[in-house]
Amino acid sequence: MGERAALRIISAGVDQPGATLANIVSNFMGPFLPATDLLVVHAEDELTNVVEGILGLHNVGGAILCLTPTSLSERLEFLAGFLHGIVGPDGFVAPLLLDMTPQDISPTPMGIFQATTIEYKEMLALVGQIALRVAGPNLRLIDVFQSQWPDFDERCRWILGPPPSDIVVSLVLESTNMSFRVRAGGDDASWEDSLGHILESLPKSPLASPPFDVASLELLDVENVRWKPIPALLSRIRSSHIALVEPTAVFHWGGSALLASRAIRDSVDVHGPMYTFTLMADEMLLIEGSR
Crossing angle for the helix pair 47-55 and 74-87, nearest 10 degrees? Predict the structure, then answer.
């Protein structure tokens, strides 16, 4: 018998963040899947050319479709349906979610697929399932996965998001709550140089917050009602209202994003005047009482 052809798995994205994630995923999974060709497809330009290229491939057993909040479109749905037909009944199409949850896509046609986020446990499960299809049980899988994970996680954190605009930020401390607006004007920046810098300056600013440990704060997406890790870039916040919450307040709400978001949202008039930090190229301007 001839040597079995390598299983091909397509890693695809339909917008720039999705295409970047597709490349990162392909590089990340290579060491776990030595009997697999990981083919990266960027469907952000001419989808017809992408389809024609895939039609010429053989032994395509699966597809990882990298989704972002800006990629949900008819283009994505068409590509997902096409890939589903190419891999056949024994293959798989796995949506991989960046800054999203399965609940975000459940009302869409993408909801028919079992989605995975880029969180550690879910990625490990996805890699394990693919490895079983390719070469059977691999006792070294977890060790290799753990050695590769820090680089994968860090590279995902620096994927660019959409241009940031106005963000309402609520600071929830044990002794006081306060809110202010951050106006980015479409210019991206690292978290450390933007919100991180603002938080460090608050005790000595006109807002005169009590001292607090910036590193201990938990990030709550008030608009989308979910706890999130601190992003590397301002553009990855993807929310018009966030809260940075001390651990004691998180405990007060029993860790519930729903209860915390409701309480914070009810206490803040996001349309009213509040201190506004305007981020500029080389400086940060604080305006009192701005809308």
Answer: 0
Cα–Cα distance between 281 and 121 in angstroms, integer?
A: 38
Residues found in the chain: 291
Residue located via tokens 């202010």: 180
pLDDT tens digits, one per residue of 106-129: 998 889 999 999 999 999 999 888
Q: Which residues contact 168 (CB under 8 A, 6 or more apart)?
A: 179, 180, 181, 182, 222, 240, 241, 242, 268, 270, 274
Query: How far is residue 39's CA from residue 19's CA, in Å, rounded to a whole number?
Result: 12
The contacts of residue 285 (CB under 8 Å, 6+ apart) are 277, 278
**pTM for this predicted structure:** 0.84
- Domains parsed from the chain with CATH numbers: 7-157 (3.40.50.2300), 166-290 (3.10.20)
